[in-house]
Amino acid sequence: MVLSATDKSNVKAVFAKIGGSAEALGGEALERLFVAHPTTKTYFSHFDLSPGSAQVKGHGKKVAAALVEAANNIDDIAGALSKLSDLHAQKLRVDPVNFKLLGHCFLVVVAIHHPGVLTPEVHASLDKFLCTVGTVLTAKYR
Amino acid sequence: MVHWTAEEKQFITSVWSKVNVEECGAEALARLLIVYPWTQRFFSSFGNLSSPTAIVGNPKVRAHGKKVLTSFGEAIKNLDNIKSTYTKLSELHCEKLHVDPENFRLLGDILIIVLASHFARDFTPACQFAWQKLVSVVAHALARKYH
Fold it and tell me: If you average pLDDT over every residue of chain B, what do you get?
């Protein structure tokens, strides 16, 4: 799967529109992930996962920051997320299926807060981008 | 048989009561064909699918989207018996249409994104949970008669 020039500009436009609210969206996507796909909670037994949890919000900020970083370095996502990729391979070892679930929840929160931005074409580009991020983060698993 | 809590049933039926089946079905199917272009393989008889604009405006896509979502409504009317609701459709999708069941999962997730864009904050995480469960049960029922 390759991100075309149009995909890249669509993704950058989404993140430009989202702007500073990316951190909040990250937190919301994570909260939705835990509620809509409860199996994902198995990776966070050390977290308070109750509604409004500061830990979840804090972790959502980190996730959003990584997505923003990837979007800002969209010509070399593997390079930009290399350290995160190592972390996931060596330490976190989150099953690859979960990146799809989080990507889906991120699309849901973008749809909720910025429905006008998520045209079918942009939806396609953003989905491809999120898949690419997931692929990069699991690339060193084996 | 799937167990639904009263709350889950409420989330499903209250969202559904506000859905414009024709519009929502058309949008969901169009997005499926745009976001996952390989799904177009089943629709070679639909005419012009050459661009997102063409797909969104394609009357056959709109009509088929409405048909698909109308059928989804049958599951919602028969939440306690989704399996048998889809027995014949499952056989059809396997024996005549030859559709990989993975496509049902893809369409289910697209439907959820469409609902989210229309219902915004009303589509709460708990509401999404109920709908994820529903689309998963529907996909499973449609795949059940495959051989």
Answer: 96
Confirm or reject CATH 1.10.3720.10 for domain B7-146, answering yes or no.
no
Nearest to B112 among A108, A119, A121 (CB): A108
Q: Which two tokens stand for residue A61?
A: 């900020």
Q: Supply the pLDDT for residue B55.
A: 98
CB contact under 8 A, B123 and A104: no
- Structural domain span for residue A97: 5-138
| ipTM, 2 dp | 0.86
Task: Count how many domains chain A has.
Answer: 1
Output the pTM of the full model. 0.92
Asked if A120 lies within 8 A of B117 by C-beta distance, the reply is no
